[in-house]
Amino acid sequence: MGVDENTLRCLLYAKSVGANFDSVLTIGHQELHLSPSQLRKALADFGILVSGRDVDEIFYSSGRYADALFQFLGAKKVDALDKSDYEGATILHDLNLEMPSYLSGAYSMVFDGGALEHVYNFPLAVRSCMKMVRRGGAYLAVSPGNNFMGHGFYQVSPEFYRAVLNEENGYSNLSLFAFESGSEPRFYRVEFPQSPQDRVMLVNARPVLLFAMAVRSNIVTSVEFFSHQRDYVSAWSASSRSGKPGSEWERGFIRNLFRLVPLELRWMLKYLFSSGVGYDARYFHRTQLHLEAKKRTALPMKN
Questions:
Q1: Least buried of 95, 150, 166, 207, by fewest C-beta within 10 Å?
Q2: Is residue 172 predicted with pLDDT exceeding 60?
Q3: What is the Cα–Cα distance from 302 to 296, expressed in whole angstroms?
Q4: Pairwise CA distance, residues 133 & 111, whole Å
Q5: Alpha carbon distance 213, 138 (integer Å)
Q6: 230-242 and 247-258 helices cross at what angle (nearest 10)?
Q7: Per-residue pLDDT tens for 223-278?
Q8: Once rounded to an integer, what is the mean pLDDT over residues 184-196?
Q9: How confident is the model at residue 303 (pLDDT cuts 50, 70, 90)?
Q10: Distances (CA, A) of 38 to 6, 11, 42, 128, 198
Q11: According to the model, what pLDDT value does residue 268 have?
Q12: Does 207 have pLDDT greater than 90?
């Protein structure tokens, strides 16, 4: 859990498109996992010049933690929330439980740099983090996607963030990117299909993380952040409109017929025909975050 070169680029993207770093809450006390040269390179890509004094301040004034980095990006206040103070968290709270009311809307930015996947009550933890962002602020998350089995309790998909960081829950302007873990990663802008029946799927060999960012545009207090996958919602709606008594039988017949195909061939056919092997060019667009930031119109965030 910490800020490496790739996560730094995610933070710089947020900064470039107008995210307000005035008051930052990190989930877990974020460590620095990059070198001075990596810091300089990432900053240079985003057009930010840094002095030797700034570098020393970032790396040595906060010990092994990234507090000074957030301050360099504009933070006047940096808090860290954790269940324990073993890493020097400033706010002690178990995200498996309801958050204290005084934290609601308290920060211009809440940043999950790889912590929530370790919280068993994941939906409640995400909801709490979203509530701690003030109106006009931003929620940022870097979460494990593919090939992180055993890292935490959960891995997440693009569909999860579309289902949660939406207008129904008071959020808008979702930015979503996938990138491969490690040095010189490949970044992809994630776009969603027009058809609700299509899924953004990925089968690959390297660890992949998702970077999600959205603006809290409205304070929604009544929503409990329950959600369903869009393709199922569409199927349920179509079924109720059609009123065909034989539709369920037809689906069952097709499923049973498909089961006659050997399992290995079944999986191969499923992913080949769904373009699920590798990065589907319809949904994953190769890019770099500093280039995306130049193309992106500034987000409507309040300072």
A1: 150
A2: yes
A3: 17
A4: 10
A5: 7
A6: 130
A7: 556 666 666 666 666 655 555 544 554 555 555 655 666 766 666 666 555 545 68
A8: 87
A9: very low
A10: 10, 14, 6, 33, 38
A11: 62
A12: yes
Verify that 124 and 269 share a domain, yes or no. Answer: no
Q: Which residues contact 27 (CB under 8 A, 6 or more apart)?
A: 80, 81, 82, 95, 110, 111, 112, 113, 115, 116, 129
| Nearest by Cα to 277 from 265, 266, 285, 269 | 269
Q: In this structure, are residues 224 and 215 in contact, taking their beta carbons and an 8 Å threshold?
A: no
Task: Please tell me the predicted confidence (pLDDT) of residue 246.
Answer: 47
The single residue listed with the structure tokens 């206040």 is 77
Judge if 259 and 174 occupy the same domain: no
Residue-wise over 200-213: b if at least 16 C-beta within 10 A, else e? bbbeeeebbbbbbb
In whole angstroms, how far apart are CA 42 and each of 26, 109, 214? 21, 21, 22
Instruction: Using CB atoms within 10 Å of the CB of residue 245, give its burial: 0 to 12 exposed, 13 to 18 middle, 19+ buried.
Output: exposed
The helix (H) or strand (E) run that includes residue 154 is none
- Residue 155 CA to residue 14 CA, distance in Å, equals 23
More confident residue, 299 or 140: 140
Domains identified in the chain, total number: 2
Instruction: For residues 165-181, give the mean pLDDT.
Output: 94
Considering the domain architecture, whether residues 117 and 246 belong to the same structural domain is answered as no
Amino acid at residue number 106: A
Count CB neighbours of 79 within 10 A.
19
**Torsion angle, alpha carbons of 27, 158, 108, 47, to 10:** 100
Q: Which two tokens stand for residue 56?
A: 């020393």
Residue-averaged pLDDT of the chain: 86
Separation of alpha carbons 32 and 34, rounded Å: 6
Between CA 157 and CA 163 the distance in angstroms is 10
Both 102 and 178 in one domain: the answer is yes
Q: Which residue in this structure is represented by tokens 């710089």?
A: 12
Entry field: residues in the chain:
303
